[in-house]
Amino acid sequence: MNRLYRYNLLRSCLVMICLAYWISPGLQPASAQMKEELCDCSPELTLLLRVNDVRRTADLVTKAGGKILYDPNLGIGNDIPFLVVNLPPTKLNDKKFIDSLKLPSGVMEEIIPSKIVPQAEPAIDSAGSDSTSSAELQVAPEADFDSLYVPLDDIKVPALRKRVAGKGLGEGTIVAIIDTGIDTSHPVFQDRVIFWNDATREGRSPLTRSRQLDGKIELEHNKFVALPEKIKENEYVFSGYIDEKKLGFQQGDLWTTLGKEGVDINRNGTKDDKLLVVVGIIPNPELAKLEEASKKAAEERKAAAAKDEPIPAEKPDLEKRDLTKEYALAFVDVDMDGKFSKEEADTPIMDFNSARKMQREDLKPPYQIMLEFPSRTKRIAYPLLFRPNAKKQVTEITVAFDQQSHGTHVAGIVAGSGLQIEGAAPKAQLMAIKVCSGRSCTDQAILRGIVSAFFNPQGYVPDVVNISLGSHEGYVKRPLSILIQDLSAKFGTTFFISASNDGPGYRTINGLGGSSPAVFVGAHVSANTLREHYRLAEGVNAPEHGLLYFSSLGPSYTGEMRPNVVAPGSALSSTPLNSDGSSMFNGTSMSSPIAAGAAAAMLSLIKADKEYAKVLERQEKKIEAIRKKSSDSKYSLTSLALSMRLALENSALRMKGFTYAQQGAGLIDIDKAYPEFLRLANLTLEPKKQTAEFSINHYSKFNRLYDRSNNIEAHKRVDLDLNIDGEVSDQGSLLLKNTPAIVKLEKVEVQDSDGNVTILDVNGKNEKVPFSIALPGKEEAQGNQISLVLSNSSKSYFYSTRKRDLMERGKTYLAYYTVTQHGEREFSFLDVVHKPIELSDLNTEVSLPSLNLQDSERVAAFVVPQKTISAGAYHRYPIAVTRRDSSLTVMLGFVASSSGRLLVSVFNPEGEEIGYRVIQQTAQLGGDRSNASLTVSTKDEGIHEVVVSTFSGNWLNESKYDLLIEAQRFRVSTDELKLATVDSGKEADKLITFSNSSNQVKSMSASLGGFTRIVPQDDFPILANYRTFRKLDIPEWRPESGESQTTSVRLTFPPDDKKYEGFSGRIDHRLYKKGPDGKMVEAHKGMFLGRGKSFNNIPRPEPGKPYETLYAAVDTYFTVPNDESLKDSQGTITLDAAFPGIPVKMDGSIDLKILTVGRPDVYILQIKGPQRLIDASAAKTKHSNASEAILEIPTQINGISKIKVTLPVTVTPDVKSTLAKQLIRSTIRISTSDSRISDSIPIEITQ
């Protein structure tokens, strides 16, 4: 390179540097602009990690600053390959750390959070509903306390209680309620809530260590408060505030940062109160009394010895040894006057759990056990929970409350005891495990909560656990399932889980706790309950037993029978006293606790039965070994937990007109379950008759047994395996695996479109039975029974043969298989096949007056005219949706003179409800809507289920409806379109193809919707457990533009989820500015916009004038990288900032042209982008500006160090530069000659 070239290159570079600095003097690298502050939104992640080496992983987690919350191996060995850990959030994205753990494949997928919600809603009234709003499903009825109840008769609880007079009330049992908490002050519980844990930590308040000086502590600079007399001798105390504003939200809550946090705990109408709290330590006064008595007795003995009198015998000092040496006490400034009054100083509060432990041991707590607020007519009281650190210092205090009522309602169903509310086990004791905050339930809180139910300082172990929460089943074995299996094996506890409220379609079952020994419970409703709860009209012929319309159905994708049983799904029960005190809810959230309470009632009798003594002794021995972390008891209690499930199934009442996928084994009969459980439990004492949970096809999504494909396999391979838990010894494992398992096709059910169920005889000739069992390689040799040896992988599978030629269109076929070992049914699974209705391309004549369709011809349509439906019925129409179908339209209407209320729902092949409508026709129901239409997008081919059911309060007698199901076969070749401007040199011209395979469309037109300006906020820095800030890029404003100087801003996640995939967090509801000290302070407050936020009246920057920079903020809980090896560790995401108020202008226009191709089955739309995008504000600006730049060139010529050169420079602002990062979004609207067929295609234009 010659000297002249180097000189020119240097000159050019320096000019560019000068100009760059002159134009943008404040420009800095993105990293330098990053600001962050600890948001305490997820200070630790609670995760269940499947691991290869437990001991090694535990050491690595501990060294990384994490904590082992639960080691199922109890610190001994590596047999059970998982750990429940608390991790610093940043560690989940630390590639080096995660790689060092050597986790098995699939673990990262399990960590990604899913939406979990309580499975209850207020009972449904029939008036004032709106078919376009889901709110109609949640209108509460007028309470009628004389006729509402917990329907215990339906499951024979009164009959159970008659077995032993005055018993069977749950006495001696503990039930853990995994929910939203329990209002312990409610009179229906009568001090029977013995344990409280807030795993959400939404009620927590941190405390700081304060040194007392002269009986006072300094709260703030020169602000002192006198300590109560009882703790004035403490050298240190811990103090803080119970701040109402900081209560009521869960760490890791995805749904709020809108300032809606806050709980009015003292019920004075505000959420702004701050209550001073101080925690100190005092010696146990009872212990001091005993020591004084002991000292006095010693003196008496000494005096007697001196007088040669008989010396009094020394009494054993057992009480003294059992008493705690000191108490931690909390003092609360209830009246908020900044000091402790005499009454406040004299009424310190104990840790609630410690106090309840004393009461269980027949000791009277010496101090107050709840925080109480004065009220003339109501009791306002909350437990206080002390959280000590490793040094046993109370550094955190929690106010325990149930903000949502759900947990209190569930607890009342289990164990309420009052004049109007009586639960199934009114003498059972309760553990309140709060895992749901006011707005969400997280996997983290559920894991923490369940562990605390079994491993707590008080040593409690629940006999029964109820989980009335749910989420739609996915295709991975959830961490909760692994934990439930392990705890069932260690403690023999039975878990009851709500089936979910996502019905009435097939495979809408709850995914929480699936593939575990848990009992899933669906929602039953009796004719009596309909009369009492739902005001059933007189003369209506309702079925004696039915299902509530929302109750979720199985099977699981694995084929497991879910639900296992059903129980009443509606009840009047307790709600927190700060709401109504009682209410009637319905849902599988009610079914599950009725079943759990009934099980507790049965166990209270079973435990007192002499025939159960050895089983109980074996269980207690195992639990004691677990507590001592001993390996003495090398056996599993899984068989005991499964015995409860099997007993409930074996004794259940089969309900007429429902399949195994709808009702499981049937309606619980707890009285008949008693002897069956006693028999099965005693079998668990024999090592050769132990059992384990079975798995099907290794939980594989790709080999799932339940499949809604249009063309399913004729021979479906079924791999059976034993999911043996880690408590089983080697010898026990061999016994389990080597016990032959007999698989038998017990029943085949056929359900027609009217919901009627026919049972086929599988034991006779099989010519008309559409299912059979076949051996590998011998698919034609079919039978209904086979013996498998599970230890031999080559002989532990068979084929479920589906004979589709024997199946009729529109019907559902269900094969009920049982697995038997040592003469006992151990497991049931289902093979469910829908023979779909295929929509023809031929014209169908339609004459449905109720839908205003007369002598019409339709293509790809299925017509159901004048169909009769009765109370409690479910009509099912499985529809084969093909790749040609873009959407499905469902029209439902009442035939003239019919009356009632009907619900029509559409479910996709995954079992997810994708749309519904409600129609009603009668003056009594109010606001008649005699017909409705629903169109849903069908992105996935496969069998979609359309279900019509009677719905809600006034279940009327037979009605008639017209139904039209029609596919729109006008499919676009793309779901979205990205286009560039012509000047950009990128792709500005594109073609979109529309397939018109059934010739439903004769012509089409296209138009553009409105334009929205989007500025992607790229490289938004994120950091786990931190609130991070980024300068908000806002389009500039110029006076000559004629535009508003303020704008609205909508911050959202972009449509392309790859830009934030694996991110768990939220957009803050505030925009910030820098304060005088450089810290971020609130500048603007926004509102909800989905998961995003919207802001109004935001000022726009004006070139050349000062502008206060605004910053957007993001709270990051944690991030899960897209690939399991964490190759792409995420440090940034992209947000979209939309500015709907700023006009969009362009040179040229977007051209839409429909091309003629000479074929009726294809339409082509040509889209051409504009010449360029322009800022309206730049239209009248001067496009150039003369200036000068000084160039300094270093030199060594004749001692001259540098040369200064002044150069003329013309600066031309680049109009596109302000748009370079911006996008324009709009929608292409497609209209056709068929008014039912339309479409919209999102379009994105870049410069």
From TrEMBL:
GO molecular function: serine-type endopeptidase activity
GO terms, biological process: proteolysis
One of the Pfam families matching this protein, by short name: Peptidase_S8
Stretches that traverse the bilayer: none
Record key words, sorted: Hydrolase, Protease, Serine protease, Signal
Gene3D superfamilies per UniProt: Peptidase S8/S53 domain
Active-site residue numbers: D179 (charge relay system), H406 (charge relay system), S589 (charge relay system)
Keyword Lyase recorded: no
Signal peptide: 1-20
Protein's UniProt name: Peptidase S8/S53 domain-containing protein
Species name: Gimesia maris
